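Supplementary Text 2. Reproducibility record for the structural model of the 284-residue chain.

All settings were left at their defaults, and a single model was retained for analysis rather than an ensemble. We include the record here because the model underlies the residue-level annotations in Supplementary Table 4.
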Amino acid sequence: MIRDINLTMPLPCVVFSTVHKFDDYVADDMQCGDLNEAQLVSLGVNDISERVDPYRLLRYDTSQSKSYRRFDFDIPPSFPKGKSITREECKSILFDEMREPSTQFAHGQYAYLIREMINHFQNGNGASYRNSGLDEAFSNLIKPPSSSNVLEIIRSTISNEFNETNQGYNSPLMQNISSKIYNGRLPRFDRTKDSFNGLGITIHDIHAQKIEISTLHGTSNSWGAVISFKTQDHFGLVKIDIQDSVFKQFRFFRIWFFLQRHKDYAFKPFFTNFNALIPISGGR
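Retained model, structure tokens:
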């Protein structure tokens, strides 16, 4: 019976974990309030808002249709006129302005996630974030079979072990699974449709992931297992993000980076956690 495979490897058993650790507070995208005005300007973070100058705490008299460059010594400085506001008023305006363009990255079933996560960025004080809809989306991402899909790697490896009875059930099954996963492709929200459905913008990248076989059992003719995927991303931006030519062109990211990294704003990034439990099975 296939349960004999478990004699040398008690379950649950981790078959893959990323080099990056969970709850990695020292990662660059988890930093906040670590840059001053001169450092931000040197990174190109100058044309931030159409409504306010967050450096000088001014609300513009009219929306700025054209950007201006701060500290351009080739031309006399020409700043838009505006009304003085408090820092709290400025924060509120920037978050409203950040929410509005976020819709260009989010349409359909998961479009609500980015607005919800911006709200959490504004009010959550760095607390971790979890959403059942994100768990569902991640589970659906994992399920489709593919030659490079992790779930298919695990299923085919167990199935091969189950059917090769001449090798017995004491072979290093878990080690075989682990080595194949490292040569495979981890599930990520990097499909073309994820650039528009709200998943690509909310889960910019997966920082840490752990995959384990939670249960494994069988009879003489069939087997079943439950695979656990534990995953974590960071809702935060690194310096190279804002220097990227694609990211830099969107005001959404410039506002995000400013709110997170400016020393007088310092909104805390947070961990986004999403998990999946996937049953698989097979037989002779």
